[in-house]
Each structure stands twice: as C-alpha cells, then as structure tokens.
Amino acid sequence: MKSKISLKWSLVILGVVGVTCSSMIIFIVEDFHANPMSPASSPAPQELQQARPGLPVRLAIPAINIDAAIEDVGLTPQGTMGVPAGPTSTAWFDLGPRPGENGSAVIAGHEGWKDGVRAIFDDLYKLRAGDKIYVESEQNTVITFVVRGAQTYDQDGNAENVFNSNDGKAHLNLITCEGTWNAVQKSYSNRLVVFADKE
C-alpha cells in the first residue's frame, strides 16, 4: 500500500493530572490519502502478514544510551500526531509504515521534561552519521538502521519529507523538540529530526 501524508508542524501540550509536564512539537495531518492496491494484485491476508515487519515495541540507540519502549500513536481529534505518554518512552506513528517497511517510519520522543527530569530524546542531537539504531518488533526480530544525518526545522517549516519518501527504501526518522522555549506558546522554537536508513 502506498500512502502520502501532507503535513505541517503543530503544537501539542502533554498534561498529566491537569499539570503541563512537557511539550512536544509534532505534526498536523492536513491530508492523508491511502491508495490500496487493486484486489486482483493484493496478496492474501496471510501473505501480507508474513511479508510485513512486526509491530515495533522497543527502540535501542547505544550511542546515546537509549533503550526504550515504543508506543503506538495515531492522530488526535485535533488532527495531530499523538505523543508518548511520559518522558521515558517513544511513540511510533502507526498511520505510516512500520520500521523496516519501504517508506519513512516515524518515531517521536520528548526532549526537556518538567522539574529537570530527563526525557528519552534529550541527547538525540548527539547522533552522528553512521550511528546505529535498533528497532525490536513484537516477533523478537531486530531491524538495524544507520543514521544518515539530521535536520532542524523551524516552527513553520515544511515537514513533508519527514513522513514521505519515494525511493522504494526503508527509512526511520526520529523527532523531538529543539531550540528556545517559549513560555507563552509553551513550545520550543525548532524541531530536530534524525534521518536513518535500513542497513
């Protein structure tokens, strides 16, 4: 199945018991189109299941000492990508490809948490080209990705290339906040995206 997502950056504040604990800049999906294959060319459900990687459950990045659970998130009622429930887990956008499938799988994590508590992607900026990222699936298989590079986006930047790719290869893009904290908007000024390719 081929899908295309047109996106803009948006802001979501994660509150716990009515208290804003952290903020994370994510994406608003303006348009999500799925173009399923025709029935004649579609594989049988069993073949499709065997061909797809398992659902991601754990993320490991030895270079920055990350070993974290992966949650599944979709869209909020406001049309934004969901965020991890807390500072120590990550969130895979389950309306896009699974890690290891062709296309750009996206995993988000918090940076900067309330009261100085460390968040899972506080050190994401330290990753360099060649660093390895490992995603474990529910089937206990591990898919390896290699960091290609990183890009910083401003608040109004076009993020379409974070979610879409058309080169027929499998990619993994990691997203977090970066920049200056705006207390009025309760958001950071930038977003950091680390781009990685399946080994």
Task: Tell me the count of domains.
Answer: 1
Physical arrangement of strands within the biggest beta sheet: 3-4-5-6-9-10-8-7
The major β-sheet equals: 8 strands, mixed, barrel
Low-confidence stretches: 1-25, 28-43
What is the correct CATH architecture?
Answer: Beta Barrel
Helix content: under 10%
Alpha carbon gap, first and last residue? 22 Å
Q: Say how many strands there are.
A: 10
The overall pLDDT average reads 78
Shape: globular
Structural class, by secondary structure, is mainly beta
- Just give the CATH class: Mainly Beta
Strand content: over 45%
Q: Helix count?
A: 2
Q: What is the H/E string?
A: EEHEEEEEEHEE
**Compute the gyration radius: what is it?**
17 Å
Keywords:
single chain, 199 residues, mainly beta, Sortase, Chain: A, eight-stranded mixed barrel
Describe the structure.
Helix content is 6%, strand content 51%. The chain is mainly beta. The chain has one domain (2-198): Beta Barrel (Sortase, Chain: A), CATH 2.40.260.10. Strand 7 (132-137) and strand 8 form a beta hairpin. The longest helix is centred in the N-terminal third of the chain and has 7 residues, at 45-51. The protein is globular and about 45 Å long. The two termini are 22 Å apart. Mean pLDDT is 78; it is low at 1-25 and 28-43.
